[in-house]
Amino acid sequence: MTEIAMPRLSDTMEEGVIVAWHKRVGDHVDRGEVLVEIETDKAVMEFESYESGVLRQVLAEEGATVAIGAPIAVLGNGSPDSGSPDPAGGPARPAAATPEAEPVTVDSAQRTATAPAPVPPAQAADRFRASPLARRVARDLGVDLATVPGSGPGGRVTRADVVAAASRATPAAEPTGPAEPTGLAESTGLAEPVAPERTEAPVAPRGERAGVGVPARPGRQWDHRRPAGVPDEPEPPREIPLTRVRRVTARRLTESMREAPHFYVTRTVDVGELLAFRAQLNARTAAAGGTGKVSVNDLVLKACATALRAHPEVNVSFAGDKILAHQRIHLGMAVAAENGLVVAVIRDADRKSITEIAAESRELAGRAREGRLHAAEMSGSTFTVSNLGPFGVDSFTAVINPPEAAILAVGAVREVPVVRDGALVVGQTMTATLSVDHRALDGAVAAAFVRTLAVLLADPLRIVA
Amino acid sequence: MPVITYRQALRDTLRAELARDPSVFLMGEEIGVFEGSYKITAGLLDEFGERRVRDTPIAEEGFVGAAVGAAMLGLRPVVEIMTINFSLLALDQIVNHAAKIHGMFGGQCRVPMVIRTPGGGGQQLAATHSQNVELYYAFVPGLKVVAPSTPADARALLLAAIRDDDPVLFLENLALYNVKGEVDESAGPAEIGRAAVVRPGTDITLIGYSRMAAVAVEVAERLAAEDGVDAEVIDLRSLRPLDRRTIVESVRRTNCAVIAEDDWLTYGIGAEIAATLQEGAFDWLDAPVRRVAAAEVPLPYAKPLELAALPSAESLATAVRQTLDAVARRR
């Protein structure tokens, strides 16, 4: 028997959400086969089994949030038929291997006096854990322990979990608050008219009081039915749990705004020639039988890479007591995915051709929208481009993606009257606004960078030069 | 009720028993002229004379053996061994003679003797003078081992030990001698083998003896103030016989327990308590029983290392909080 624990799939991951099991209990699993899809703080990733065997038990249902290292499944040997997930009847193990019976911690010289209590040993149980008291209470309340998520260390089911499960199984008891261990039957407050704020008050599942690796309960269903005759009660706001991506975005961008003093440099760029160049490039590619078009954004990305080469002082990070000057240019590209903002990274963008960048950005953006980027594809950028032009935005300022020193916010292309050679003509422009971390860069440097960028975009042949 | 020190309670009790029963007498190193290394026998030589308060050579096996013989012949010797560490020199007399004679010789005679001896570290007396080896005696059928943690219990248990007809090892603790508490001088002897619920509570059971019982009470009060935790504290008071009923009944109510002991963890007193709990309260346990004990090293002399190696209120509080968190009991 092997317990499969929630893997660490990204550097910043602390917990993962089970998106979909690819195998069911009793299924055979080959080493390397996809077992489960897991949503990390950044992406949904497929988790492949490290060994072959039969899936004996699924310990975390789809939608469950599980801390890194906590068990999510048990893989066993033998034929699929013998794989009944019977909690009490699992294959016998020698008593000596019972995890908590062993005072494993005392390694004479290394330990100090503080709490020399047995640390739960590494995940090695072949049956789920429940305290003796939880088992007894489950018998008394008629709760099937196998259906109760455990909130104790290592997923151990405690009495609080059983009582909470029992109260969930008694629907009448639910709206009035957390049920107590006894008297469930009496707490049917529904016969009475119940004030709306009472029915809709969020009720924390009892198990969450533990605060120790508590798996989140499945999303709460909000009951907006109100008693008749109370027409004008204000609707309370609906609570939407944060997705992993939104949580990370909130944390990192708050950190950015708090720590990095931002200033902004905006320039209107003449992109008439850029558009003509792009049209010509795409037409020639198509004529030559090539597929895939180059977008304005691809050209902006390439121009940024070239400009960063000319201004290495922008390709930096502020690091407390020093500046880190990055030797390579990895461009981040902000993508609005369904579940939030992600930054896909094009590595060594300065060494790639426009068509390479175009192909890579298209492919990355596509997978980013589906939440299928790998963690490595979303980390390590040294400068980021955010383009809201496709949404018709004239100009905007972006929050720096830490630990980078600058981010470029690109607006939409507009036909505007411009003065050219003393005459008023119709020109095409867009705005580029650079947000800059003033700890790392000063205004003159930022302005010089933006000027180089404007020159490149106005004269696109120099981008590819 | 007068408030006196643990030391004073012991001295007053010895004095009262010497006065009450002419068969009671004291023996030990430096207990007469020097009045005892820890001044428990202060003034007793002057009051009762050399026949009743006898200084001995530095020869533990000899004077413990002499006490065994005196007890067999009807006297009630109260022997002081300067610290429990030196009792190892008398191990054969205690384990093979005092403990066995009544059973081995068909009950022809009893051995009504008391060995008073302090244990405990924390005084920078280094590894050989800082041990907690009461377990060696609590292990042996035929002996009784008591370990008071308060002045009142020091008195009540010493009375009981002197009046008991079997050999009793009376464990004192260097860190407790100056502890003060109310002592009812009219109270009778304690019942050997009965633990005390010194602080009733509902959330968790803390079990200790001697110094760690006092620490457990302190921790319980702190957790009540800081965490709103209502901890029950049990002072074992007697290591043999062990009051299994009291600890099992408590844990059946609180569903979790932490044991505090000054001795080493492995094979220690706490291991016996934990075994008792899984036998008697298995279906009532909501979390594994945890033990807080000394680091498994010969106790260092250096003060910071010595403190780090000994169990503390802090380490006990941490273990209690972890246990309560594991059962979602702490708010």
From TrEMBL, chain A:
<keyword id="KW-0808">Transferase</keyword>
<dbReference type="InterPro" id="IPR023213">
    <property type="entry name" value="CAT-like_dom_sf"/>
</dbReference>
<dbReference type="InterPro" id="IPR003016">
    <property type="entry name" value="2-oxoA_DH_lipoyl-BS"/>
</dbReference>
<dbReference type="GO" id="GO:0045254">
    <property type="term" value="C:pyruvate dehydrogenase complex"/>
</dbReference>
<dbReference type="InterPro" id="IPR036625">
    <property type="entry name" value="E3-bd_dom_sf"/>
</dbReference>
<dbReference type="GO" id="GO:0016746">
    <property type="term" value="F:acyltransferase activity"/>
</dbReference>
<feature type="compositionally biased region" description="Low complexity">
    <location>
        <begin position="166"/>
        <end position="183"/>
    </location>
</feature>
<dbReference type="InterPro" id="IPR045257">
    <property type="entry name" value="E2/Pdx1"/>
</dbReference>
<feature type="domain" description="Lipoyl-binding">
    <location>
        <begin position="1"/>
        <end position="76"/>
    </location>
</feature>
<protein>
    <recommendedName>
        <fullName>Dihydrolipoamide acetyltransferase component of pyruvate dehydrogenase complex</fullName>
        <ecNumber>2.3.1.-</ecNumber>
    </recommendedName>
</protein>
<dbReference type="InterPro" id="IPR011053">
    <property type="entry name" value="Single_hybrid_motif"/>
</dbReference>
<feature type="region of interest" description="Disordered">
    <location>
        <begin position="166"/>
        <end position="239"/>
    </location>
</feature>
<dbReference type="InterPro" id="IPR000089">
    <property type="entry name" value="Biotin_lipoyl"/>
</dbReference>
<dbReference type="Pfam" id="PF02817">
    <property type="entry name" value="E3_binding"/>
</dbReference>
<dbReference type="GO" id="GO:0006086">
    <property type="term" value="P:pyruvate decarboxylation to acetyl-CoA"/>
</dbReference>
<comment type="similarity">
    <text>Belongs to the 2-oxoacid dehydrogenase family.</text>
</comment>
<keyword id="KW-0012">Acyltransferase</keyword>
<dbReference type="Pfam" id="PF00364">
    <property type="entry name" value="Biotin_lipoyl"/>
</dbReference>
<dbReference type="InterPro" id="IPR001078">
    <property type="entry name" value="2-oxoacid_DH_actylTfrase"/>
</dbReference>
<dbReference type="Pfam" id="PF00198">
    <property type="entry name" value="2-oxoacid_dh"/>
</dbReference>
<keyword id="KW-0670">Pyruvate</keyword>
<feature type="domain" description="Peripheral subunit-binding (PSBD)">
    <location>
        <begin position="129"/>
        <end position="166"/>
    </location>
</feature>
UniProtKB/TrEMBL annotation, chain B:
<dbReference type="InterPro" id="IPR009014">
    <property type="entry name" value="Transketo_C/PFOR_II"/>
</dbReference>
<dbReference type="InterPro" id="IPR005475">
    <property type="entry name" value="Transketolase-like_Pyr-bd"/>
</dbReference>
<dbReference type="GO" id="GO:0016491">
    <property type="term" value="F:oxidoreductase activity"/>
</dbReference>
<protein>
    <submittedName>
        <fullName>Pyruvate dehydrogenase E1 component beta subunit</fullName>
    </submittedName>
</protein>
<dbReference type="InterPro" id="IPR033248">
    <property type="entry name" value="Transketolase_C"/>
</dbReference>
<dbReference type="GO" id="GO:0000287">
    <property type="term" value="F:magnesium ion binding"/>
</dbReference>
<dbReference type="InterPro" id="IPR029061">
    <property type="entry name" value="THDP-binding"/>
</dbReference>
<dbReference type="Pfam" id="PF02779">
    <property type="entry name" value="Transket_pyr"/>
</dbReference>
<feature type="domain" description="Transketolase-like pyrimidine-binding">
    <location>
        <begin position="4"/>
        <end position="179"/>
    </location>
</feature>
<keyword id="KW-0560">Oxidoreductase</keyword>
<keyword id="KW-0670">Pyruvate</keyword>
<keyword id="KW-0786">Thiamine pyrophosphate</keyword>
<dbReference type="Pfam" id="PF02780">
    <property type="entry name" value="Transketolase_C"/>
</dbReference>
